[in-house]
Structure formats: structure tokens, C-alpha cells
Amino acid sequence: MLDHDAAILHHLDPCALEAQGEVVVVNSELEPDGFWLLFEDVREVRHEVARFAKHVHEVDAPRDIRDFAVDALAEDLGHVRVVDGDGDDLEADRLKVLRHGEGGLGRPLRRLDAEHGDAMGAGEESAEVLHAGTIQFAAMLVLGIETSCDETGAAVVRDDGRVISDVVQSQVVHAEWGGIVPELASRDHARNVLPVVREALTRADVSLAQIDGIAVTCRPGLVGALLVGVQAAKGMAFGADKPLVGVDHLVGHLLAVFLQREAERPAAPPFPFVALLVSGGHTALYRVDGPHDSLVRELGGTRDDAAGEAYDKVAKVLGLGYPGGPAVDARARHGNERAFDFARPMAHSRSLEMSFSGIKTQVAALVRERAHLDDAFVADVCASFQRAVNSVLSEKLFDAAKGEGIRDVVLGGGVAANTDLRRRVTERAATVGARAYIPPLASCTDNGAMIAYAGAMRLVHGERDGWDLTATSATSLPRATRKGRGRR
């Protein structure tokens, strides 16, 4: 049970509350006939307590705010009991709800029938008075749309990370070209985005009218592909009168670890954590202090090719087709990782920067010397290549965590699905006493669920984007690594 003294606003210690694993709900007497409730997710306590304290100061809330607290059950974060300073339930006529659409504070509530436990819907009025007792926060449902590259994705996700539906249409049209053709990607997205969205809503058994907000990838990525998703999201948001938020694709990957899928519900990391985001277009290390762009800081990254790009190019020279990552991973399982001593890129550099253009050139040079690429040779090359790349990725991740004084590390991005990389990170974490959080495979590759969740984190803070939301190839996250050669 949440200690009453700890929940008094002017004595509120967000660090202690975060450590308790509790949810904090603070209320203030902003009107004579009721109380506004502010619900804070435990993962946002540190950041949000300061914001709410500032809000209370601005409205000059009465000093007797300290007499009220909300007790939250750590076992079931969806239920709270509203009590006064003596621990007694507040009377029904003294409890008022502020819906999430009003100023960004709070969330919609539903009352549970005390006798039968059936959910009773809260009315349309934001000032509806509910009975005191057990109250359930109605989950915010967010539709997420992802079209940044070669997957058309749509998902319905709750703001607590629960994935209700997740539909991904992978584009096979690029296989014959050995890589992504941007114009073909855009046209394929245009054909599939609405059918994929409809399927996501159908699987979630909800209509667009029941969705609380729409999130869409708006950066970075192929601009033509992004525009398809952004325009589709704008049209749906305008037609259904729903709030719209744009999401940075990289932030989506960084927060994918919080997704809770039906089959797999792994533990979520606390903030802050250090993340290795590694995919076909991006490879970088980040310190993540919260679920917002402004709370993410790059620690180091690749100077040239992304690790996933190197995987694709190695697969191409070996004749394994596109996409190359899964093909290299599969062949490597049958090879000898010490058959070829490829140079480990920037392994001995003291910085957190990386480079993967050289190792693909090494592989290409080796392959040119062979008249015949037999299965054993291909398997050995794949295994040796993986060892060189993944050992550096793993070491840099834990070097970054050590430098930041953080025990918790996270993997994200498409290459996070690689079997060898997942094993190395898990084993290294056990060796150094760190905690590794690795998303299930479905959360590693591009998907609408991670975009929906990242968008939900913006929506619960009252953030909205206008109809001038556009697409761009640049990330919103400041870069610390300069691209190209030369002294640093």
C-alpha cells in the first residue's frame, strides 16, 4: 500500500515512489464542488511530479491539498481507491473526473459496479461525478500507423502497452532488386495502408469512433513512404474528429520494449536505461530518461553504414537475397565463427562510435577470391561476419551503460531479432551484473504497435499535432556522431 505521507504533494518524493513500484495519483481542489484527478504512470513519475507541482503552483491550489491521496495497487495498476487524510473513502459528491481531452491532465474513468464488478461507462461530461470506491481507469486506445520503409503496419494499442492488434504487410516487391526501391515502396504503401488499418481495427474488435487518438510515423524514413502514412492518418483523424500525433520512428523502436503482447509479456525496464538501436538504416546508442523525444540522448553511433545495411550487403554478395539479415542469421547457425578472422570494426576505440563499411568490403574481397560458393563456405562467412559485428555491438552497449552508471540495457530495431546478438547481450549482462531487456521478435521489426505506444505517451501528456504535420527524412533526436571519415 502506498504510504500516505509519501503521497502528500509538498512532501512528494518521486524517487521513493518510483522505487516502490506504485502509481501516483494526486488531486487538488480546483473547484468548490469536486476534485480533479491526475493519473501518472509509474514509468513517468519522476518527470511528471515536477510538471504537476508546477501546475498546482500556477493555479494557486489550496494548501489543504496535502490532506488527500490516492492509494494504488501495485499488482493491478488499473484500480485505485480515493481516500482522504484519515484513509476513509471520499463521498460521491466530492469526486470529479477530468477527462484526458481537457488540458491533457488525467484520463477517462469507468466505475465498477461494487456488487457485480461490471464496468459502467463514464458519461460524456468531463465533470461527471462518480461514486467513491473502486474506480478503473479506462484504457486509452491508440491506432498506430507505420509506413517509413518497406513494411505497412497498423496496430491498436492501449496506453499501458497492451497490444490489442498488430498487422504488418511486408513488401516482397523489393526482393528481385536486391534492395528497397523508394518509389515502389511508396506505391505499395498507398495500395495497402487502408486495408491494413481496417484489418487492425477488425482484429481489435473496435471501430474508428472508439479510438482515442491516432499516431503515425512522420520521421525519419523514405519521405514518399512516410507521406502515405501521414496523409492517411490525417484523413482518418479529421474525419473521425480524433487527436493526431506524429512519432519519430527511432523513438518507437526505443519504446518497443514496453509493448505487452498476448503471447509474450516481458518485464519492462525502469528509466533511465541505455539502448542499442540497430536496424537497416540506423545504428546508435542512446540514454533514455523517459518516453519522450526530449528525454532521449545519443551517446554514440555509426560513422557510415548501419549494421543492418552491412548484413544486407553481405547477404547480397553471398547470393542469399533480400532481406539479408534473417538469411545471414540462419546460415550462421551452421558455420564456424572462427573460420575467418574479420577485423572487428572500431573494437579498440575508446569512443562509442562505430563503423561497418569496412567489414562488408572485407567479405566482398574474400568472396571474389572464391570460384565456387559452397554451403559450408557461406555458413562460415556468415558466422564469422556475425561474430565480428555483434561482439562490437554488445561491447559498445555495455561500455555505454558503464559510462552512464546505468545497469539496465535495452535492444531495439530489426537487427535486435538476430539470434547471436540476443545471446551475446544476454550472456554479457549476466557476466557484468546488468539487466538486459530484449523485446520479442514481433516488436523488433517495423510495426504499428510501437508507433501507437509512442504516440500514446504523447497523447496522455496532452500533446497534439496540427494538420500541418509533415514527413521528413531527419530524426528529431540530436546526433552526437559525425558521419564520414576524419579525426574526431
Remind me, CATH topology of the largest domain? Nucleotidyltransferase, domain 5
Q: What is the CATH level 1 assignment of the largest domain?
A: Alpha Beta
Number of strands: 17
CATH homology group of the largest domain = ATPase, nucleotide binding domain
Strand count, sense and closure of the main sheet?
5 strands, antiparallel
- The low-confidence parts are 1-138
Helix content: 25-40%
Q: Distance between the terminal alpha carbons, to the nearest Å?
A: 52 Å
CA-based shape: globular
Number of domains: 3
Query: Mean pLDDT, nearest integer?
Result: 76
From N to C, what is the helix and strand string?
Answer: HEEHEEEEEEEEHEHEHEEEHHHHEHEHH
What percent strand? 15-25%
What class do helices, strands and sheet pairing give? Answer: alpha+beta
Annotated CATH architecture of the largest domain: 2-Layer Sandwich
Q: Determine Rg (CA atoms, Å).
A: 25 Å
Count of runs of 4 or more consecutive helical residues: 12
How would you describe the overall organization of this protein?
- This protein has 488 residues and is of the alpha+beta class.
- It has 3 domains: 5-137, no CATH class; 141-257, ATPase, nucleotide binding domain (Nucleotidyltransferase, domain 5); 270-438, 2-Layer Sandwich (Nucleotidyltransferase, domain 5), CATH 3.30.420.40.
- The protein contains 12 helices and 17 strands.
- A 5-stranded antiparallel beta sheet has the order 3-4-7-5-6, with no helix packed on it.
- α1 crosses α2 (45-59) and α6 packs across α7 (324-332).
- Residues 1-138 have low confidence and may be disordered.
